[in-house]
Specification:
Number of strands: 3
Number of helices: 11
Strand order of the largest sheet: 2-1-3
Largest sheet: 3 strands, antiparallel
Helix content: 55-70%
Order of helices and strands: HHHHHHHHHEEHEH
Shape: flat
């Protein structure tokens, strides 16, 4: 990364240099610095797909799903427009951001149903933040190796998530109607619009999409969005079993329309 920094000092108008350094900072989990580099790269090159992709990853790591979703969708659109093979990887980030956005809303909904649950969760999260801050200070002072510190930080965050999930499970047993966690199965989600499918069709490669979104995509480019192989509208076939599954899920889970 030092070589990249020297290159940036020599040529601070090159967006590729900032994008490359952003990638290095992802590897180091330096999320705030990564975001700064991505924003600079985008200022220099508005259609910088990689910068938007890395920006989404960093925003997701910092638990900012709304911003991450916007960045990831921009990266995805740019990948589709340029027929870039990264579209598949980017779609995974889009889905992760959308899931985390939904889960954040779910957590808040469940928390509002129980004052005691909210107090317990807040206590766990506050303790976790204090531990992480103390650990980050040790890393900055070089009292602890950076790699070891990052591993310990990940362990703290994982342990906290498990405790929170355990508490929620206990409360859900006591009040399943209101406190049960609501989820949408991955196989019901369209990989282009990232919404629940209503009229799924399947390609010759076995990948399913909602009819309206794949037809719109094929009007722009007659290729499979994920494999980039040639694909024509007449090669699509109805996925009746999946359509039935989508219909039944929406009938039983009306809330999922807003997913």
């Amino acid at each position: 990364m030092r070589l990249t920094e020297r290159s940036i000092q020599k040529d601070p108008t090159n967006p590729i240099l900032f994008t490359n350094r952003a990638f290095s900072r992802i590897m180091l989990q330096s999320w705030d610095s990564c975001i700064d580099d991505c924003i600079k790269a985008i200022e220099l090159q508005r259609d910088n797909m990689k910068a938007y992709f890395y920006l989404a990853k960093a925003q997701l790591a910092l638990h900012h799903p709304n911003e991450a979703l916007t960045s990831a969708l921009t990266a995805y659109d740019l990948a589709i427009q340029t027929h870039n093979a990264s579209a598949s990887s980017i779609s995974t980030i889009v889905l992760q951001a959308k899931k985390e956005k939904w889960e954040m809303r779910e957590r808040e909904r469940i928390r509002r149903r129980s004052e005691l649950l909210q107090e317990l969760e807040d206590s766990l999260l506050n303790n976790s933040r204090k531990e992480v801050r103390a650990l980050e200070e040790q890393i900055e002072k070089h009292d602890i190796d950076q790699v070891e510190g990052l591993e310990e930080k990940a362990e703290i965050e994982l342990a906290t998530r498990r405790k929170v999930e355990e508490i929620r499970s206990i409360f859900a047993i006591a009040d399943p109607e209101h406190l049960r966690r609501r989820e949408v199965p991955d196989y019901l989600i369209d990989n282009i619009s990232f919404a629940i499918m209503h009229d799924p069709v399947v390609t010759k490669n076995g990948q399913s999409y909602d009819r309206s979104t794949i037809l719109e995509h094929l009007r722009r480019s007659e290729t499979d969005p994920l494999t980039r192989e040639p694909l024509k509208a007449e090669e699509l076939r109805p996925n009746l079993a999946l359509k039935q599954a989508c219909t039944e899920f929406l009938e039983e889970n009306g809330w999922a329309v807003d997913w």
